[in-house]
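User: Second chain of the day. Same drill as before.
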Amino acid sequence: MRVDRQGEGLTLFYNPAAAKMAPNDVFGVAFNGGFNQPIMCGGEPRQMTLQVRGSADPPIYTIRIRVPQHGARSITSFLSHGGARADRH
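Assistant: Same format as last time:
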């Protein structure tokens, strides 16, 4: 994914209703990502926050990250089941 917000905060969304990966019963969905090359990858997956949107819309997961000053491309994974299942972007 191309990034145009270097040095700023960025909110990422994961919609499990639009993906084949089901959230984990214990921690839901985790995010792991980095920028540019694997040398800048994020390390340990971070738990995303569940956002309940009422009865008309299914819940989504969000996380806010800071884009590095020299970040140009993002490599991201959304993880479930302790990292055994992934939805990569």
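The longest strand covers residues 60-66.

User: Great, on to the next one.
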